Amino acid sequence: MFTSNCCPGAIISMNDQKALTIAFLIATPGTSWGGMEKHTADLARALADRGHRVHVIGHRRYHDRFSTSVHFHPQPVQLGRRNPWLNLSLKRCIRGIAPDILHAQGNKAAQLAAHMKPGKIRLRVGTVHGIKSSHRAFQQLDRVIAVSERVFNNLEHPRKQLIFNGVSATPNSSQSSLEETLLPTGSINVIAVGRLEPVKGFATLIQAWAQFTQRPIKAHLTIFGEGSLRPELEPLISRLELGQQVSLAGFRHDLTDVYHQADLVVISSEREGFSYVLIESLLADCPIISTPVAGPVFLLPDCAISSDYQVGGLTDLLASALTNLPALKAAEGSAMAFARKTLTLDHMADQTEQLYLDALAAPG
Question: What CATH number is given for 14-166+344-361 in this structure?
Answer without folding.
Answer: 3.40.50.2000
